[in-house]
């Protein structure tokens, strides 16, 4: 392990740990958390793109509907 990793600290539940002192299983769990966070960010961007497309389709539909007089 590089010197940089042996000097790294991580904070979990407000407790600071030396990264190098974590078990391999704990390190793997941290990688899983990081992967999940990256995927959530990617999905947030995808969701925003899909919502933008939906809004554009709704706007286009509104423009294509025949005009109606209010039935008052």
Account of the 3D structure:
It is a single chain. The chain has one domain. A hairpin with a 2-residue loop joins strand 1 and strand 2. By secondary structure, it is mainly α. The chain contains 2 helices and 2 strands. The mean pLDDT is 91. It is rod-shaped, with a radius of gyration of 25 Å. A two-stranded antiparallel sheet has the order 1-2. 64% of the residues lie in helices and 11% in strands.
Briefly note the structural class of the backbone.
Answer: mainly alpha
The end-to-end distance, rounded to whole angstroms, is 77 Å
Q: Helix count, per DSSP?
A: 2
User: What's the mean pLDDT score?
Assistant: 91
Give unreliable regions as ranges. none
Question: What is the N-to-C succession of helices and strands?
Answer: HEEH
Regarding quaternary structure, how should these chains be classified? single chain
Specify Rg, calculated over alpha carbons.
25 Å
Query: How are the strands of the biggest sheet laid out side by side?
Result: 1-2
Largest sheet: 2 strands, antiparallel
Fraction in beta strands = 5-15%
Outline type: rod-shaped
């Amino acid at each position: 392990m590089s010197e940089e990793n042996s000097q790294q600290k991580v904070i979990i539940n407000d407790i600071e740990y030396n990264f190098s002192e974590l078990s391999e299983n704990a390190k793997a769990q941290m990688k899983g958390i990081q992967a999940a966070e990256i995927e959530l960010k990617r999905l947030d961007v995808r969701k925003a793109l899909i919502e933008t497309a939906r809004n554009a389709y709704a706007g286009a539909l509104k423009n294509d509907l025949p005009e109606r007089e209010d039935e008052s």
